[in-house]
Amino acid sequence: MRDRHVVVFSGAGISAESGLNTFRGPGGLWEGEPVSLVATPEGWRKDPERVLRFYNERRKAVRAATPNLAQVALGELEQIFKVTIITQNIDDLHERGGSTNVIHLHGEIMKSRSSRDPTTLFACEGDIVLGQKADDGSQMRPHVVWFGESVPMMDTAIAVAKTADFLIVVGTSLEVYPAASLVDYVPYEATRFLVDPMPSGLTDEDFHIVEAKASEGVPRIANQLRALMA
Ligand code: OAD
Predict the structure, then answer these.
(1) Residues 225, 156, 55, 99: is their CA dihedral positive or negative?
(2) Among the atoms of ligand 1, which is closest to the Cα of residue 30?
(3) Are 84 and 121 in the same domain?
(4) Mean pLDDT in residue range 145-159
(5) 195: domain CATH number?
(6) What residues pair up with 5 in beta bridges, in sequence order?
(7) Which residues of 36-174 form beta strands (DSSP E)?
(8) pTM for the whole thing?
(9) What is the mean pLDDT of residues 80-98?
(10) How far apart are CA 118 and CA 53, in angstroms?
(11) Which of 12, 46, 98, 118 yields a CA-CA distance of 20 to 30 A from 212?
């Protein structure tokens, strides 16, 4: 059945049970750090040290985290289906959970790049510090997409979304565009699931809403899909 394509669209909520903060809501990352100061080109120009500190902390947290049951269940689904993960997350928990086909719309915290050239990437395990220069002489920065920057992987993700037989949306508030528009590209016939303990903002009645945490809801859907194919 590896010709049936499961497309997963994930957000911060899928990593919450691995100990990584979501962005919105009480206790979210954007409550502690104003987005405009740490996740925009303007913030970077104004106070690069603050931006580096913010993402160095994210990298440390990601390194300390381990994949949870949701990410592992998606990794295991590759035994039966073609699976593509499209994630807004910058962590590598999908990969460490066993997924081999992951598109990162908003970049990857375990990679760095020069400020000038978004295409040449470097593995990055430790902190990036002010004064650390790339070969082109510009300051190194994390490989993350900031508000106001383009989302280079969007076209690839749209092409993938168009080939979905099943869509699992998990752990995202669907508030950030263009990423959130992906759900509109999924074929009409595809079966759609949404996993979120506090689903909001989705008016599409064609979704099966699974009001649960990712570690419970995603394995449940994976079992349903398995049963469907048995
Ligand atoms: P948000 O913080 O906006 O939304 C997280 C979603 O996860 C919410 O709907 C929560 O209800 C849900 N959630 C919380 N705990 C969960 C759990 N255990 N299992 C499942 N769901 C859970 O995060 P995103 O939608 O990912 O972009 O945010 C999108 C983008 O906004 C991010 O990629 C980032 C941010 O600003 C950039 O930095 C460019």
Answers:
(1) positive
(2) 36
(3) no
(4) 97
(5) 3.40.50.1220
(6) 82
(7) 82-87, 102-104, 107-114, 121-123, 140-144, 166-170
(8) 0.96
(9) 98
(10) 20
(11) 98
